[in-house]
Amino acid sequence: MSTRIYRILQGLILLGLGWLLFQKFFTGKLYYYINERFFDLVTLAAAGFLLLGYVVLAYRKDHPHHHDHDHGHEHHHHDEGGSHWALAIVTIPLLLGFLIPSKPLDANVIQSRGIANDALFTSNQNKDGLELNAPADQRNILDWVRAFNYSENPGEFAGQTADVIGFVYHDPRLPDHQFLVGRLTVTCCVADAFAIGMVVDWPQAAAMADNTWVHVRGEVQVVEVEGRTLPLILADSVKNTDQPAQPYLFP
Q1: DSSP class of residue 173?
Q2: Using CA atoms, how far apart are residues 14 and 62, in angstroms rounded to an integer?
Q3: Is the separation of the CB atoms in 146 and 197 below 8 Å?
Q4: Per-residue CA distances from 123 to 53, 73, 185 (Å)
Q5: pLDDT at 114 over 50
Q6: Average pLDDT in the 80-100 region?
Q7: pLDDT tens digits along 198-241
Q8: How far is Cα of residue 196 from the mean position of the Cα atoms in its chain?
Q9: HSE of 237, CA atoms in CB hemisphere, 13 A
Q10: b/e for 226-243, b at 16 or more Cβ within 10 A?
């Protein structure tokens, strides 16, 4: 492969990486991969790839490479042999990013990782920072799980009204008239994603399919599941709903 073609491919790959990151960002699919607090860094990286791609292509045009003698020519090809492999390796994630449809994880994660309601949250979070003075029906599942985690007396939330959206998961430890309404939380990226959930008591629970997104409203109670204290919703209504544009919650 000539140096000119190599530089063209190198520049196009860099431009492709930048375009891919910007495309995921502007379509909202970047949420499927990382925590939103890293979005600024990703957009900077995308801009950097685009700039590097432009520079590489411009350098290829303005600075053609010449070989002074045979020894230099041989050394050049020896170095580029490894570079060609590196170029091919970098191309793989680029192609996968464009060819494989982006989609979020679902309730199947629970089967391998379980429910992590007692997982530790970031060290700077405490009960005072939960802002539980907000109306109970405006809290999401993560808010409720945090509240139960940090409260010395979870019973204080009994009787409050929950109004949450999540996916259905039938935990084998629960009776037929109950299911978990869950969400996935992402601290850094999907590699560390874990599921949290609230038990829902609903007469038609057994007929509901796993991974169905539902809007649940009802009174909160406290339930013990294998020695763990979990929030339970005595559902007044359970309605099918669309998957949120942002399906993950971020601690």
Answers
A1: T
A2: 18
A3: no
A4: 40, 57, 16
A5: yes
A6: 76
A7: 999 999 999 999 999 999 999 999 988 777 788 999 999 999 99
A8: 14
A9: 9
A10: eeebbbbbebeebeeeee
